[in-house]
Amino acid sequence: MKFSKFADKFANQSGIGMLMDDLGNALQPGQQVYMLGGGNPTPIPAVRQFFHKNMQDLLQDGDAFDRAIGNYDPPQGNPRFIKALSTLLKNQFGWDISEKNIALTHGSQQAFFILFNMLAGPYPDGNRKKILFPLAPEYIGYCDVGLEPDLFESALPSIEIQDELFFKYHINFDTLNVGDNIGAICVSRPTNPTGNVLTDEEVKKLAQIAKEKQIPLIIDNAYGKPFPDIIYTDVNPHWDSNTIVCMSLSKLGLPGTRTGIVIGPEDVIDRITRMNTVLTLSPGGVGTAIAANIIEDGQVLEISEQFIKPFYEQKKDFAIECAKQYFTGFDFAIHQPEGSFFLWVWFKDLPVSSHEFYQRLKKRGVIVVSGSYFFFGLNQPHPHQDQCLRINHAQDREVVEKAFQIIAEEARHLCS
Ligand SMILES: Cc1ncc(COP(=O)(O)O)c(C=O)c1O
């Protein structure tokens, strides 16, 4: 069959699609798999209990369940959920917002598709704009969402060697160039893939630059504050009237409900609402029905603080112990893990690319993600794209430990 350019764009995708195909096709039948690749959250028993109870309450609460599954919500999203969230953000964090500043989407991935194509590409005045990522490497899920080619520009980080084990990327503010061709600045906080968490100062600096340039700052809060709060440093959530904050119920434990949240200026929210109408009629209503009461009574903050953050923090500490124990006989460093549930490991002397390393690990049943996928929008390659792996450390201890043993064996074998 012949297809349009629009269809070809998705056939030729380079990043996340290739990766997903690769994962699906690569494994031998019956092979033991150590899945440290994707970004699926781990079910946390204490958190699941809340969702189970809320579901049971819905079923017992008159026709509440039937309404959640039997009705289309308005295109902006479930009004009760939106009101509860705007009240929570206003009361707890002093954000100057109302219901008019929030729209829901089918997962935040869909929000990025809408936002990036809304703020980059051809403008009515004939200009073309791009989304600027000030701190490469960035989230693999961004790189294929542009309908127009060449939609992204990324800036390389400066690298701080912190000690024998840890390094950290920083935004290079001295060389960061925000030209007139930039339609928005975007950062994930925590950053997927590195686990970096921009400090409040860094976010304020970016917000100031965006304001001066009269473009929005987009903050991808998928793992961030106030929920799910998978952040181990002391930072505050950021909001101002020039910022678009994207959140999600996924890493709270509800990825299957596909609930994304965009908080932004009213005109942005209005456009998202209109696009929701065209693309999907309305966002799904099941996630919001299950989570509405923990947003209303603010319990979502305690759940994040008491259960979700410590759960992933323990996983992170264990993964670092495994790296210390098994990663011997070759030179490596770990990006300071300040948030999310990934370790970004730099193998300094690999004689093969990270993609080749990933292929070799896959043959042994260990699925990680090659660093090569996270460096898009650059006009020059960076050595780290061939030297780093992203490892999801949120699996069971035995799985993580065995996977680290295999990664170490393979790295030693290559480096010897
Ligand atoms: C940084 C980041 N942003 C956005 C998303 C999209 O999440 P969802 O569409 O499930 O809300 C993910 C998913 O893993 C992510 O890691």
Task: Write a structural description.
- By secondary structure, this protein is α/β, with parallel strands linked by helices.
- It folds into two domains: 5-43 and 303-415, Aspartate Aminotransferase, domain 1; 48-298, Aspartate Aminotransferase, domain 2 (3-Layer(aba) Sandwich).
- The protein is built from twelve helices and 16 strands.
- The protein has helices at residues 5-11, 16-26, 45-60, 64-70, 79-93, 107-119, 200-213, 266-280, 286-296, 299-326, 354-363, 397-415, and strands spanning 34-35, 102-106, 121-122, 128-133, 152-154, 158-161, 166-170, 182-188, 217-220, 243-248, 259-263, 332-335, 342-347, 366-367, 369-370, 388-392.
- The strands form three sheets. Strands 2, 3, 4, 5, 8, 9, 10 and 11 form an eight-stranded mixed β-sheet that branches. Strands 6-7-12-13-16-15 form a six-stranded mixed β-sheet.
- Strand 6 (158-161) and strand 7 (166-170) form a beta hairpin.
- Helix 3 crosses helix 9 and helix 10 packs parallel to helix 12 (397-415).
- The longest helix has 28 residues, at 299-326.
- The termini are far apart.
- The model has no long low-confidence stretch (mean pLDDT 94).
